[in-house]
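Allow me, if you will, to draw on your knowledge of protein folds for a short while. I have a record of one protein: its chain in single-letter code and its fold written as discrete structure tokens. I should value your view on which stretches of the chain appear to form regular backbone elements. Thank you for your consideration; the sequence and its tokens are set out here:
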Amino acid sequence: MHRLFQQFVERLASASSRESLGDAMSGAAAALHLPCFAYLAVPDRSGNAPQLISNYPLKWTQHYLQNNYERFDPVILEALEQPEPFKWGLGLERISFSTPQREMLAQAASFGIRHGFTVPIHSASGLTAAVTFAVDERRPSFDRCIEEYARVLQLMAICFHSHALRKLHPDHGIGGWSLSPRELECLEWAAQGKSAWEIGRILGISRYTVASYLENAKEKLGVRTIVQAATRLAAARTQQQD
């Protein structure tokens, strides 16, 4: 598993496009017998469109986005409510579905998306993205995979989000200060309470390199502590959304 994860991180680091990011996740998920995945970056208050990277059938993903299903998708709605990963599918319903939701789930099932494991990715402002690993049928092998590798899948989802963020949102300016992509990534994870070691594992770099990026970010922002830098980051993001 360690080798699989390391190869996954290396492929993400060398990815130069949405397609290569998707290939990295597809390969790692397939190795765990999870044939389908979807990464959905949730729109923020600025009105940006959702961003989707997946190996779901193209006809389904186009239909999903064209009909703005992310607005009432019960999986996304549940991800909004809780930070912890969860399973979903037949027999695991936690809420009663509306007619449009039932129709949407039936359409997804017709494309082989019937059960899944979803990892919500939250920031200080709320749900940022969700990564789902889906199957066409709930088999014992699926349950065993989730039980055994739930934390690995969660870490894979976080890593994927971190790399996708740079590809989908290349603007790294904060309140007039220009941070490098790595400086911004490290600061964002530090703002969520991650240690230099944890950030290094997520990004596939050493903790000493993380510490260097954080020091550069503090210097550029004109602050002395990570807490102060994170506060400036949060304030600038709030101003961008208002």
About this structure: The longest strand covers residues 126-135. The radius of gyration is 18 Å.
